[in-house]
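Apologies for my clumsy wording, but can you show me some protein sequence, whichever is easiest, together with the matching structure tokens, please?
=====
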Amino acid sequence: MKAALLLVILVCGLAVGEAAAQATRNAPRGPAPADAPLITDLSSHLIAITSSFTGTELLLFGAIDEPGDIIVVVRGPVSNAVVRRKGRTLGLWLTERSVSFDGVPGYYAVVSNKPLEEIAPEPLLQRLQIGTDNLRFRHLGGEPPPDMADFRRAIIRQKIREGLYHEAVDAIDFLGPKLFRTELSFPSTVPVGTYRAEIYLIRNDRIVAAQSTPLFIDKHGIEQQVFDFSRQEPGVYGMVAVLLAVLAGWAAAIAFRKR
């Protein structure tokens, strides 16, 4: 009887221990310890888009245990993108070909304290997709065209023109040998969604430490309500939009007629 009781206690103890270990593994990680080689944070983890939003900047700051090079990569929500190539046909510019890609970041920024090629070897930059030249988009469809790289570069050029992709060299300020800071710029056209800021501490061509922190960009106020309504009731939203356009045109016609 005693042996059976001891066996039950042992089994229960092992189960409790395993459950506790599993809970510990799945528990959210707290802030990095004070003696960590890299400690970073953002001035804010939420950007609220309202009717007066014209873009904003966030401060990223941190500390390192010993001198080294810093690379900051901020990636926005990914989506599909279609690139169309137009050609002149019978005097008109018409679409000749189109290529679709998946996994295209809506926002992408790289900030470093010196040129990337002076910080890390090219294979490492390619593996981590650091730098616009190392971004990889997945081709959608059949056999990739032989000139797919041209279409990929077209996406990047367009994003750069829109202010959604950029690289900044020598944009990290060191406040002494261990403290650093930099500013991250977000234009008014920045897409909503979940972002990720990746910070790398590199010495002697290898990563000494790395951290990843989330950033959320979302609509607030009446903009959020209109956005949700357009998603939940697209048919009604379209009818309301058409009705408002008609009423606006009618009001403008009356105003000009009185003059």
Summary: The mean pLDDT is 81. The first strand starts at residue 38 and ends at 42. The chain has six helices and 13 strands. The CA atoms of residues 62 and 171 lie 14 Å apart.
